[in-house]
Amino acid sequence: MDNPSQPAIEARDLVKRFEDTTALAGVDLRVGPGRVHGMVGPNGAGKTTLLTMLMGLVRPDAGSIRVFGRTREENGLEGVAGFVESPRFYPYLSGRRNLALLADLDGGDAAARIDESLELAGLTDHAGARVGGYSVGMRQRLGIAAALLRDPRLLILDEPASGLDPAGTRDMRALIARLAGEGVTILLSSHDMDEVEDLCDDITIMRAGQVVFDGSMEELRDKAPDPAFRLSTSDDEKALTVAGPGMTVTPDDGGLLVHAQRDQLDAYVIALGRADVAVRRLDLEASALKALFFRLTESGAEDRATGPEVGT
Amino acid sequence: MRWGAMRRGTTAAVVAVLLGTSGCGSSGVTKDRLNHAVAPTFANLYVLQQSLRGRKVGAASLNSKADCARGDAQAADSGAGNDWMCTVTWFNTGPDIAVTASYQVHVQTNGCYTADGDGPADLNGQQMLTATDGATVTNPLWQFDGCFDTT
Amino acid sequence: MTAVAERTEPRQAARTGAWVVYRWELIKLTRQVKAQVVVGLCVLAPFLFVAALNAQSNVPQDTLFGRWVHDSGFSIPLVVLGFAGQWALPAVTSVVAGDIFACEDRYGTWKTILTRSCGRSQIFTGKTFAAITFSVVTTVLLALSSLAAGVLLVGRQPLIGLSGTLLTPGHSAVLVLTSWATVLLPVLGFTGLGLLLSVASRSSAVGVGAPVVIGLVMQLASLVNAPSAVRMLLLTTPFGAWHGLFTVRPFYGPLVQGAIVSLVYFVLCVGGAYALLRRRDITGS
Questions:
Q1: Residues of A with CB below 8 A from C11's CB?
Q2: Chain B CB contacts of C227 below 8 Å
Q3: pLDDT tens string C97-112
């Protein structure tokens, strides 16, 4: 029934105001079928509002949402699962009992998937315990299990690794990669640029209720500025004068901040040696994508006024 | 918007209907209604009391009448209050010999009342009485409750 | 797929959805301590009440049938109905009705259940019927338990009615059960009030507490000689409408008025709660 090239999500011009704040100021989002789509932005950018809206919990003041071509009124949540903010359950029921309840609300053969979902989420050993005693990470895993019950074609995950220990984070990323490999479309929000870079095919960057970048990871990398390095030398003043063309070196926080491509940086370090300046420390301050992310989301108000829309 | 208007409309209609059936807010407690409630209730309880004392009488032959009024002379003889006084008259041994008893009556807004015996002492002055079989039982005429329709 | 099949499928799903929600709400209720406590109290309290009465010679004279508590067991359920019914029944019903929506706010689980294949109207229907079920069950339990306590601990003596006549045990039992049945309607009115406050306030404290306070205020208003039109519109008045059944010529005016008022409260409150929940944005964690 679904057209294979039909977008999993097609949202247009979404607007949402909460009393005096504008959470979304005209947001477009298109998530291609079978893609892993990342959504990043600082707190208050409107990510969570957008996700709650996609899950049918919040009504847009204006705009339209189609999931697999259907509006909310046309059973728009069918095939969609996930969670927004930290997943919540009834604390006085066990994990398995919570899943049994949700499976019943879903109907169909969801109940038959409870064991498999617990297994995939790595929660089988704790399924019999009351959720009230769960750690944040275990609730996160239960949230994943609850989503998998629906056998979703679109999985919406808000900060899926939040509260997980490093091993849990690794499991979560592996699970997302596996589901993506099975053709599930995944929309995940994250504040961790590395996670998004690892997992995602496409990315939407939001700021202050607007989309400031929307495109594939390749497109984003093309736009990425020079990566930033933190440099500490025996003579920072002299080091400033050695800087070559096409790179910037600025004093910053008792050291130097260098924006340069890698080959430019190599040349710069050699030049420092020649000028009798010893390099004491050289660290990658921010990857190219992080640097772009900061530039896109932290630019000043005048930037916003002139329209910071990149790549749309 | 539509909801609000619909709800207001429904409320107004219901209020109107209820006011219509309630006699437009006037009190349902009247002298007449109280008289007609107290007299037969007293008669029935008198029969009960007499049977406890070993005497058989029929309620109908008593031909009981009640005359109730509010103690406060200024007040109209209607409305709830604890200042109602009732004098019950009935015919005990024959059609010519009338007997009376007094009750202080507390009438509630819902038409239920409590009558508290105020003499003669032999009839309604004691909470308990001794039945013919020797048992001490509650005197039905000491205090009694009743209700009448105020709608 | 034909158009007919497409249209009937969701409708069938809607029915089963509400049923599933209803079933789970009942399961959840049986797991909750407060529901267990309330049900236990409904069963035990009448027996404790009679035991306390039997330990002394005083009688609760200011309640209808109160002066007969030592003389006929059938007076017990009527005293319980008149004495405790007015505040106890609103409290008992709102323990669940006032919490059944607000608990989802407390646990943050609205987003969990509203992102499944069940719609909001199914969730609402299921929860509303669960709250109604609890109200009816607790009222019936309290009625049967107080009748049992009266008959077992006082006896099956004939009851003196409100016209001074003796009512046979069988007739008394029927009238007692009928009286308790008539308060189901105002109980449902309070259930609706609890549901509305539960949805509107999103707070269990308000949902459970406010109906009790409203009930007490209404009772106070009827005690201070409020105009009869106002008294009639109070949701506590129908709780006392059964007394007309106990006269020689029974009258039903108060019962009819009470039924209308109760239903109006119920419909307005439940309708309002539904409208609020339909339009509500589920935000926050």
A1: none
A2: 25
A3: 999 999 999 999 999 9
Are A190 and A159 a contacting pair, CB within 8 Å? yes
Q: Are the CB atoms for B146 and C162 separated by under 8 Å?
A: yes
Query: So what's the ipTM on this one?
Result: 0.84
Inspect the interface and report whether the beta carbons of B147 and C246 lie closer than 8 Å: yes
Alpha helix (H) residue ranges in chain A: 47-54, 95-106, 114-121, 136-148, 166-181, 193-199, 217-223, 236-242, 262-274, 288-298, 301-305
Q: Which of C238, C255, C246 is nearest to C172 (CA)?
A: C246
pLDDT of residue C4: 41
Query: Which H/E stretch holds residue C160?
Result: strand C159-160
Cα of C87 to nearest chain A Cα, Å = 30
CB C52 within 8 A of CB C44: no
Chain C contact present for B151, CB below 8 A? yes
Torsion of CA A47, A51, A54, A57, to 10 degrees: -120
Q: Calculate the dihedral angle through the C-alpha atoms of A185, A190, A193, A197, rounding to the nearest 10 degrees.
A: -10
pTM of the model as a whole: 0.84
| pLDDT confidence of residue A302 | 36
Asked if the Cβ–Cβ distance from B19 to C271 is below 8 Å, we say no
pLDDT in tens, A194-239: 888 888 999 999 988 999 889 998 888 777 777 788 888 888 888 8
Amino acid at C147: L
Both structure tokens of A202:
């496409």
Among the residue ranges A114-123, B41-50, B57-66, the one predicted with the least confidence is B57-66
- Predicted pLDDT of residue B13: 57
Contact B54, B132 (CB under 8 A): yes
C-alpha to C-alpha distance for B45 and C160, rounded to whole angstroms: 9
CB contact under 8 A, C113 and A90: no
| Cβ(B87)–Cβ(B102) below 8 Å | yes
Is the Cβ–Cβ distance between A148 and A113 less than 8 Å? yes
Q: Which of C61, C228, C275 sits opposite B109 (nearest CB)?
A: C228
Contact B22 C67 (CB under 8 A): no
Contact A212, A247 (CB under 8 A): no
Cβ distance C111 to A85 less than 8 Å, yes or no, reads: yes
Let me know if chains B and A touch, i.e. at least 3 Cβ pairs under 8 angstroms: no
Q: Please tell me if residue A55 touches chain C, with a CB cutoff of 8 Å.
A: yes
Cross-chain CB nearest to C107 (options A18, A88, A101) = A88
- Flag if A92 and C31 touch (Cβ within 8 Å): yes
